[in-house]
């Protein structure tokens, strides 16, 4: 970690709100936790320049205009724009002097904050535009309200609101078809086919040929919409079905391996252990006892 640096002009209206939180040890070890949260109506000289702060920052533009310089690029921030940044990296954000910026924001950390940030960052841009009906400003308002009251509920409720906020950010960065279906029709067809034929031996070349697609395009599109490569999806389906058979059937491990399309029992056992963190027999013993 480098040396912390911050320069700022704290230029905002008297009715602006800034709450600084001091998270408990329990919050730091368990929850997503608020470090600061607020609602600013900025004045003309407002800016922040910062680097090497152990925090993540989400800012939603309620009105006016602002600018963010981050990772070498300057972004214009208009109403319904949200940015999500890692404050370890250099950042500079400011109001437009002629169209004063109004923002809701939260500095936070904890739990899997970095994992959420890294998933969001795959979008390739720290700024996204959300619809007028987005729940994001409402979630930020709830975070602010929750942290005005300091009682036993504050930290778990803050964690809940942060998870809602982070989940919403990930959902809006994923592509959707105009008709409202998450999976495009051609990807849905491939998913359905793999669900039916997961026990068969199937190569990427074969799958691409059957669906009249380049294998490289198929690979990119499938990963983009499902989060898996086709091969990873097949393994996922095979392991999931193997769990069902281990729990509800009396078949041997070798029979189950054959049923899910894996001729090599040792390979099945090793693959299962890698994905489930226990052997098939250990899984059977645990889950048959529970059920």
UniProtKB/TrEMBL annotation:
In its UniProt entry, what is this protein called? Helix-turn-helix domain-containing protein
The protein's superkingdom reads Bacteria
- Residue limits of the HTH araC/xylS-type domain? 188-286
What keywords are annotated for this sequence in UniProt? DNA-binding, Transcription, Transcription regulation
Which Pfam families does this UniProt record tie to the protein?
A: AraC_binding, HTH_18
Q: Which organism is it from?
A: Brevibacillus choshinensis
């Amino acid at each position: 970690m480098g040396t912390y640096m911050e320069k700022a002009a704290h230029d905002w209206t008297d009715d602006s709100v800034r709450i600084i939180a001091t998270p408990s040890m329990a919050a730091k070890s368990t929850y997503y936790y608020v470090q600061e949260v607020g609602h600013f109506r900025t004045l003309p000289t407002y800016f922040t320049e910062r680097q090497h702060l152990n925090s993540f920052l989400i800012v939603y533009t309620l009105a006016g205009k602002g600018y963010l310089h981050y990772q070498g690029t300057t972004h214009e921030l208009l109403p319904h724009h949200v940015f999500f940044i890692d404050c370890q990296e250099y950042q500079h954000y400011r109001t437009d002097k002629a169209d004063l910026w109004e923002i809701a924001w939260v500095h936070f950390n904890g739990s899997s904050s970095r994992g959420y940030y890294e998933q969001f960052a795959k979008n390739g841009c720290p700024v996204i535009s959300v619809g007028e009906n987005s729940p994001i400003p409402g979630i930020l308002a709830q975070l602010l309200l929750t942290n005005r009251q300091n009682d036993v509920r504050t930290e778990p409720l803050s964690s809940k609101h942060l998870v809602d906020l982070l989940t919403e950010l990930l959902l809006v960065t994923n592509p959707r078809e105009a008709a409202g279906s998450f999976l495009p029709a051609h990807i849905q067809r491939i998913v359905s086919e793999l669900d039916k034929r997961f026990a068969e031996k199937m190569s990427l070349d074969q799958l691409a040929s059957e669906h009249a697609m380049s294998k490289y395009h198929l690979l990119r599109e499938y990963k983009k919409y499902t989060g898996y490569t086709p091969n990873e999806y097949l393994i996922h389906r095979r392991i999931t079905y193997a769990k069902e058979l281990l729990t509800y059937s009396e078949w041997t491990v070798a029979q189950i391996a054959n049923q899910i399309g894996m001729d090599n029992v040792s390979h099945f056992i090793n693959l299962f252990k890698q994905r489930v963190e226990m052997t098939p027999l250990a899984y059977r013993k645990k889950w048959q006892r529970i059920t």
